[in-house]
Amino acid sequence: MAEVILRQLTKHFGSVEAVENVTLRIPDGEFLVLLGPSGCGKSTILRLIAGLEDATAGEILIDDELINFKDPTKRNVAMVFQNYALYPHMTVYKNVAFPLETARMPKPEVAEAVQRAAEMLEIEALLKRLPEQLSGGQRQRVALARAIVRQPLVFLMDEPLSNLDAQLRLQTRLELMGLHERLGITTIYVTHDQVEAMTMGQRIAVMKDGRIQQMGDPTAVYDVPANTFVATFLGAPPMNLISGALERDNGQTYFRMEGYELAVDPAVSGIAPDVLSEASGDAQLGLRPEHLTLTSPDAKGLPGVVRFLEPVGSDLFVSVVVAGHAVQVRMPPDTQVNTGSNVRLAFDPARSHIFGADSQNLRT
Amino acid sequence: MTTDSATLTEAPPPEETTEADAMAARLAEAGRAKRLNDRTRKILAYAILTLFVVIAIGPAFYLISPAFRDSVSLFTYPPEWIPSEPTLHNYRFLFSSTSYVRWAINTLIFAGCTTILTLITNSMAGYAFARLRFPGRNVLFFVILATLMVPVAAVLAPTYLTVNFIGDLPVIGDWIDIDTYLGLILPSAVSPLGVFMMRQFIETLPDGLYEAARLDGAGEWRIFTKIVLPLIKPALVVLGIFVFMLTWASYLWPLVAATGNDYRVLTVGIASLKGQFVTDWGVLAAASLLTIVPVTIIFLFFQKWFVQASMAGALKQ
User: Fold this and answer.
1) Residues B135-156: pLDDT tens digits?
2) What is d(CA A177, CA A201) in angstroms, rounded to the nearest whole number?
3) Higher model confidence: residue B92 or residue B276?
């Protein structure tokens, strides 16, 4: 068990900046999820911690020890790869025992440790099989068993669920969380799946272009996204963004767009008064689909025309065109609405977000 | 009404039958044409294959008849393909009056040791070129490949001189010299083609395996012996057979490196059976026939590995 610290970690591949100035502190026993689209540098961070890549700049510390120049064989971190990377010519037993045999552990102790890991992951019956005789889910468990068998300081998981089918993914997700609870090993988990991130991470770090965009408790990140990237990356369907401008009249700030204006009140919007008084120019109004409600055309709210209806069983997603923007609204499945009808979208201003010209949320 | 319904129910069957008959006839006709077509194609294919088989094994086959006849009957006219009085005289002569057994043992040592050493050196070199990053890696690799373009005859004299020179050195010269096993074996113990083949094969192994092994605490040697070697087994078998067969049949280097009878190999020994004025063709044929038997057996025994190795590349993800 260990605390992991990254300080201004940077990795360039030629002219490509894979990781740029990343600083993170992962306390002992935490389950941190690195979330981002492919190519955002999240896997590179794992590989840097594992020692499979050398950092261009910055420091990596595990339990206050600088490990930048430590050989990967000596770092005592375990990694679960996306494709599991099981040794195809070895039985499951041999695969799990490999790290222990490499460490020259006496045979009886190896057998005992493998047995323990196998029991924990319920693969005792598979120990004599070869990886090619296993299903995807079973391979995944063997890879996990191989990782936990030597009780590493840190667990690194690189999209371990992405090769599983939806049902198995859900089940394995729960098992991984149970495993973390039992073992309490510091875990850094990489994924591009926001559901995995939201459900598994004690904290999540949303990444883009090699930089951390926002870090924190999953709900907090979802509720108050730091910028438009985080706002649209988290949530399905993503947060609606409507372009307009911030203007100030008689000491009051307004968000104005074609056919609509919203008075932005610092007390309600959560935006600091000094930030609000200085803000002006292009801006975007951010509204989550679940925070919008369809109302009649003569009520207050954003005016729009219903374009598409998407019933998904539990909800009805209504696509409304508001000043040229397609806005998604989540409604109860029994909502009566027709395409082509004029509506207004009502919302609680406290749940709205305003992003400035630099795409940053004015609240943060 | 009754008539109508009767007509309605009775009318279709004849129509259906004609339809079905026509269909059956069409199918039968098409089937006949296809079978005929297939048969013609098969006959043509077998004819071509047979021609090439005759070209390929004809000369070896030609050895069989004289190997079981005495030298006098070889020159009878008209020529006799199947010996009327088959004899093992040639073999008796070979084992009693020549050093055939000695040559065979030498060849086995030469080919066997060369094969084992080549597999060791080539797989290690292949691993280094495929996995390790070191300065001059590409240059070195191309230099090794370039040696493929140098004819064997061109390096014969330099190799001879080198081995001869080492033979004059103290201590090491007792082991490596002209007319020693090591002097014969060592210059053949690396094959540039083998290094290339091993490198290509090792490169197809997924990176994840090396990375997983490194994180599992394994160093290069352990990765090489425990992960890479078992996974390239098919390639090792193929390379091993190639090297064994090539060494078994090699002539030029053994001719100059093993001049005395103690270290002479089969190819050189058989050639020495050819006299300046008189040659016993029967004995020569018997010796040659005996010589190709072991390699043929080895090839037949391992041929499934050949198929496996060629498939391995195709099926690996």
Assistant:
1) 999 999 999 999 888 888 899 9
2) 9
3) B92
Token output for B192:
């540039």
Which DSSP string do the residues of B113-125 spell out, in sequence order? HHHHHHHHHHHHH
CA distance B241 to B119: 10
* H or E element in which residue B93 lies: helix B89-97
| Cβ proximity of A335 and A318 under 8 Å | yes
Average pLDDT value for chain A: 91
Superfamily of domain A4-232: P-loop containing nucleotide triphosphate hydrolases (3.40.50.300)
* Nearest chain A CA: its distance from B233 CA (Å): 11
- Give the pLDDT score at B308: 67
User: Across the interface, do B216 and A81 touch by the CB < 8 Å criterion?
Assistant: no
How far is Cα B259 from Cα B269, in angstroms, rounded to an integer? 10
Q: Is the pLDDT of residue B65 over 70?
A: yes
| Residue among B206, B218, B231 whose CB faces A73 most closely | B218
Torsion angle, alpha carbons of B165, B168, B169, B170, to 10: 170
Closest-CA distance of chain A to residue B113, Å: 27
The two tokens of residue A211 are 């930089």
User: Which class is domain A233-355?
Assistant: mainly beta
Q: Is B36 helix (H, G, I), strand (E, B) or coil?
A: helix
Residue ranges of domains in chain B: 18-59, 99-315
- Sheet arrangement for strand A353-355: A260-264, A252-257, A240-249, A281-287, A353-355
Tokens encoding B286: 């018997």
Put the strands of the sheet holding A292-295 in their side by side order: A292-295, A342-347, A302-311, A316-322, A325-331
The reported pTM is: 0.79
Structure tokens at A2: 């260990």
Q: Which run of H or E residues covers position A321?
A: strand A316-322
Q: Taking all residues of chain B, what is their mean pLDDT, rounded to a whole number?
A: 86
pLDDT of residue B2: 45
Q: What per-residue confidence (pLDDT) applies to B313? A: 46
CATH classification of B99-315, choosing from 1.20.120.140, 3.40.50.300, 1.20.1250.20, 1.10.3720.10? 1.10.3720.10
Nearest CA in chain A to B222: A102
Residues A304 and B152: their CA atoms lie apart, in Å, by 84
Contacts of B9 (CB under 8 A, 6+ apart): none
Query: Which run of H or of E encompasses A343?
Result: strand A342-347
Residue A299 DSSP code: S
Give B218's contacts in chain A (Cβ within 8 Å).
Answer: 73, 98, 102
For residues A213-230, average pLDDT: 94
